[in-house]
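Quarterly update from the structural biology core.
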Amino acid sequence: MSIQWDSFTNIIDGKPRDAQNKHYGVDPSTGEQSYPVPIATQQDVDDAVESAQKAFEKYRFTPIEKRKELLQKFSEAWSKHSEEMTTLLCKETGKPRQFASWEVNAVPLFFGHHLTLDLPEERVEDDEKILTTRFTPLGVVGAICPWNFPLVLSMGKIIPALLTGNTIIVKPSPFTPYTTLKAVEIAQSIYEPGVVQAVGGDDKLGPMLTAHPGISKISFTGSIATGKKIMAACASTLKRVTLELGGNDASIILPDVDIKKTAPQVVMGAFQNSGQVCVATKRIYIHESIYAEFLAEMVAFTKTIQVGAPESGSLLGPIQNQMQYEKVKEFFDDTRKNGYKFAVGAESVAAGKGFFIQPTIIDNPPNASRIISEEPFGPIVPTQPWSDEEEVIARANNTLTGLGACVWGKDVAHAEKIAKRLEAGSVFVNSFEKPTPQAIFGGHKESGIGGEWGTDGLKAFCNPHVIHVYKS
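Predicted structure, tokenized:
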């Protein structure tokens, strides 16, 4: 199919749809305005829901083998546009090209893994009856997607929704609308009208989706504050919700680690994607016997990290948008004002072209400091020493969130024993946080409700349906 890579529309009922009002993304590497995108209206949402409901009545009965055939065709169509999609992703996120390419090429991995999955079916029989539990699609799914990984986190909703027999309406972040709109445009060559749609817009659009009685589920990835509003809004129609929210992930460094090998990996866990990762390492606890040496290795590696525009060959790009850029700057201001020690990095963010921030480590701030207790979602991270294992586990768990965590140690069995006690949905031993479509992904406490991905994640898009057959 022929795609125009500098023109963007919503996709409703299989057709492109423009709008009178437009908004513009911003290239975070330059601060310059990007392409116009139509702002969907309530009528657009109503039309999309009507189309999705109509399509669902047919698509829900499509055998799973046929759904997989369609997903395979979608994956093949996707792969034909990887270079164009990478260039567009660089422009809307500011990611270095190698990491934008990684995100684009991770999407086929999501397709590939889901093509190996089947919906579970459970059968229980006794002398009196046979119970068969199957999982049936919910209906129309509304996917509200974030700006930090716009492709992986939108396709991570689209693919399982389609595999399980749902239709889906995708709302990309207004900060990064471009690649998601093109992904849905590609899908139109594969799916009948109404199966996969996209509506972009401003802050008024999310509430239109959460309030709409024709939508059966909202899948949201984003901030805790917005997640709470979505959950409250969905209560009036008892929509199913999956909320993947923020985190304040702890990494515990045991005294037996290989310091030179581990320290750079811990740094990458904190600063990957310029710290704009929901499961990025946000607090680093290093055993006191190796604290000084480990921190020195972290500082040395951090000094080698280049920050720059997508085509510069740098390891890190800019903060994606000005709103988040200003929020991250607050953590620098608070740290400097309170006299905490900057181990590496400037004490203030230098103004310039684009939303660039140098990676920064704060040496042993107090537990009550903002940099310890809150999530910056940017390239600034604190370290603290620890001596008592019970105490550091309690310190790691002393947060209202629980998305991810890491334990690093040469004695893997001992590290795993600690990992089992950490209150987080995904805990990594001897690796920084690397979520995978092979495992369900979700948070504990205020980091979310439910989970998606993996075999268990398919159930998030389904209703359990039990048939009780009595033998006489």
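The chain is about 35% helix and 25% strand.
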